[in-house]
Amino acid sequence: TQELRWSSTGDRKVDWTVGYYLREAERNDASQVGTAAPSSSSQTNDAYAVFGEVTVKLPDPRWALTGGIRYFSDDVDAISVSTTRVSTLNATFDSWNPRVSLSFKPANDTTLYASAARGFRSGQLHPISSILLAEQNGVELPSTIDPDSITTYELGAKSLFLHGSLLVEGAVFYSDWEGVAVRVPITSTINGLTNSKGTENKGAEVNVVYTPSASLMLQVGGSIIDATYVADVPGTPLNKGTDVYNVPRNSFTASAAYSWDVASDLRGVVRTGVVYDSA
């Protein structure tokens, strides 16, 4: 991956960033899944993106408006081969992904913001070994996985207290994730993939960081997330309203870190932490 970025500097009424991103990737696999014939596959991705973002301070300097856009294009060339089948994918996936946010600073140490943004992920070729095994078990799988995209809206606040030693930040969000790939059971231990209609995700997050001195930092945070599938997915145990894979409804984190000078050019740090995720 390579990226070239050009940004404004200094205290300006208009801040801007423009850039170019390049990614070249190659992957090669050999596999045997269940009782299906051995297979091999290879895939190359030639992707690039151009992007720009502008932040404008409004006449009332407490307000700022940010707008940006990113064009992404990914040329995917893939082949999956077994002794009985060949599957190929040669396609270009591209997307315009905008972002906009509005911020307000009622005081120098407090920021309120609202934002909306879109993200995108390319499609992929389904391994032919999975398709062959699925056919043996009467399961229908697509030869390719379509791209998916996500649009997220967020409201948040950040503020400093106690002369800057206490940071409190929180946000609420809503995400519409369209076309997300999900697992399709082939056997009791092996899955394939297919696109779903998507998921609906909403939640709240909060984080508090307290630094009473330059040596000690204490942190505590957590989130509550309601993430569910928006429609039944045929051939899977997923129905409308089913919780999304690997997204806990409740999460909690806490940590403490202490640092000290060992020598003029050496500093020691000791840290402990706990992370809790519900099922």
Overview of the structural elements:
There is one protein chain. The protein is mainly beta and 279 residues long. The protein has one helix at 128-136; strands at 2-7, 14-31, 39-57, 63-82, 86-107, 110-121, 124-125, 144-145, 148-161, 166-178, 181-185, 191-195, 198-210, 216-229, 250-263, 266-277. It is globular and about 70 Å long. The two termini are 36 Å apart. The mean pLDDT is 94.
Structural descriptors:
279 residues; mainly beta; 12-stranded antiparallel β-sheet; two-stranded antiparallel ribbon; 16 strands
Short note summarizing the structure:
With 279 residues, this protein is mainly beta. The chain has one helix spanning 128-136, and strands at residues 2-7, 14-31, 39-57, 63-82, 86-107, 110-121, 124-125, 144-145, 148-161, 166-178, 181-185, 191-195, 198-210, 216-229, 250-263, 266-277.
Protein topology:
Elements: E1 2-7, E2 14-31, E3 39-57, E4 63-82, E5 86-107, E6 110-121, E7 124-125, H1 128-136, E8 144-145, E9 148-161, E10 166-178, E11 181-185, E12 191-195, E13 198-210, E14 216-229, E15 250-263, E16 266-277
Antiparallel strand pairs: 1-2, 2-3, 3-4, 4-5, 5-6, 6-9, 7-8, 9-10, 10-13, 11-12, 13-14, 14-15, 15-16
